[in-house]
TrEMBL record:
It comes from Leucobacter luti. Pfam families: ADH_N, ADH_zinc_N. One of its GO terms (biological process) is formaldehyde catabolic process. PANTHER family: ALCOHOL DEHYDROGENASE, ALCOHOL DEHYDROGENASE CLASS-3. The keyword NAD applies. Keywords: Metal-binding, NAD, Oxidoreductase, Zinc. One of its GO terms (molecular function) is S-(hydroxymethyl)glutathione dehydrogenase [NAD(P)+] activity. This is S-(Hydroxymethyl)glutathione dehydrogenase/alcohol dehydrogenase.
Length: 366
């Protein structure tokens, strides 16, 4: 097929706004699929880029938390068909390196999707003569995207696209951190600092795991209300008393604590919330070039395990359908994560809402 025209949200260097403009999307090449995007979540990682905290090539189509329908297959694609509903993977593991082969695609040694290019180092996107890059090799804030077939995970057709989109990033990141990284067991005491899309997904994962108590912390009371709906047993408004309140509620520190903001200060404070021998799980990603000092002697004395989580330490092809099934069975209240369904033309307003800390997640629907 010929190239298609798509309306997309394009980043052109740090600044508060992305540009909504038309791009062209070339046909999928060998091993790739063309997806008509139906939903794309507005995620904290997109904001990190737009606010200049992380660096990517420019111009770039933003969005990496996407879902849609396959409309065209490149050569040699097997196991997928036109019409399949898919969630897209932003950590596009090579499937061949030693880590991929041992079930750790998040630690792929050959990853190029972070460079915002296809596995062959090129892009299918352009604006006139100018090359345009797909953020994390997805670029889902666009009516069409091309991804490697292995980055399109088939989902049940009865799953709403908004939910399929969220499963591909915040839910996989949050539930995965609980299940794969921290391996939380029933009855463990837990703390979640930051209750955006990722933190709320962690709360839901903790409830599924049977953790108790589940203490949610956020600076925004609206987020705390959502956390209680998602399964938190306690909600603390972040202030100078938070650390002492956690100590009191957990009799000296939680078994496991998660940071889901990416704020250097709350990351640094996290090990202080866990008891001797506990786990501090780092899920939020801080700005680039901002090393965070940790009191290593204290960590050693107290035998704290610090776990750095990347994309939930999971396996998308295994986990995405599992999360879809839990949602469809009514065991994961993921609808609570979608606070606004917006048009792509309103994405800059969605970033403003995100910066203010209000609401759960805006999802662009096409
Ligand atoms: N103390 C407490 N809560 C805070 C603070 C703070 N200092 N700063 C921000 N928050 C809260 C906000 O109110 C919001 O509820 O943290 C939450 C962050 O949520 P989002 O901005 O929606 O971000 P999200 O998409 O959940 O991603 C969080 O995880 O994967 C990473 O890159 C992602 O670093 C980002 C993090
Ligand atoms: Zn994301």
């Amino acid at each position: 097929m010929n190239a298609r025209t798509a309306t997309a949200a394009v980043y052109r260097g740090a600044g508060p706004d992305v540009e909504i403009t038309e791009i062209t999307v070339a046909a999928p090449r060998r091993g790739e699929v063309l997806v008509e995007i139906r939903a794309s979540g507005v995620c904290g990682s997109d904001r990190h880029v737009i606010d200049g905290e992380w660096h990517v090539p420019s111009p770039t189509v933003m969005g990496h938390e996407g879902a849609g329908i396959i409309v065209e297959l490149g050569a040699d694609v097997t196991g997928l068909a036109v019409g399949d509903h898919v969630s897209l993977v932003w950590n596009q593991a090579c499937q061949r390196c030693v880590n991929c082969q041992s079930g750790k695609p998040w630690a792929c040694t050959d990853l190029v999707s972070n460079d915002c290019v296809m596995p062959d180092g090129t892009t299918r996107l352009a604006r006139g003569e100018e090359a345009v890059y797909p953020y994390l090799a997805v670029g889902s804030m666009s009516e069409y995207a091309v991804v490697p077939a292995s980055a399109a995970i088939r989902m049940p057709s009865e799953l709403p696209f908004e939910i399929a989109a969220l499963i591909s990033c915040s839910i996989h990141t949050g539930l995965g951190a609980v299940q794969n990284n921290a391996r939380v067991s029933a009855g463990e005491s837990s703390v979640v600092v930051g209750c955006g899309g990722v933190g709320l997904s962690i709360v839901m994962g903790l409830r599924l795991a049977g953790a108790h108590p589940i203490i949610a912390v956020d600076r925004n009371p609206e987020k705390l209300a959502l956390a209680l709906e998602a399964g938190a047993t306690h909600a603390l408004l972040a202030d100078e008393h938070t650390a002492a309140q956690i100590q009191e509620l957990t009799a000296g520190g939680a078994d496991v604590a998660f940071e889901a903001i990416g704020n250097p200060r709350t990351i640094q404070q996290l090990p202080g919330h866990v008891r001797l021998g506990g786990r501090a799980v780092l899920v939020g990603m801080p700005p680039e070039d901002a090393p965070i000092p940790l009191d290593v002697l204290d960590l050693c004395y107290r035998g704290i395990t610090v776990i750095a989580s990347n994309y939930g330490g999971g396996v998308p092809a295994r986990d995405f359908p599992r999360y879809a099934a839990l949602y469809l069975d009514g065991r994961l209240p993921l609808d609570a994560l979608v606070s606004h369904r917006i048009s792509i033309h309103d994405v800059n307003e969605a970033f403003r809402v995100m910066r203010s800390g209000a609401d759960a997640r805006s999802v662009i629907v096409f």
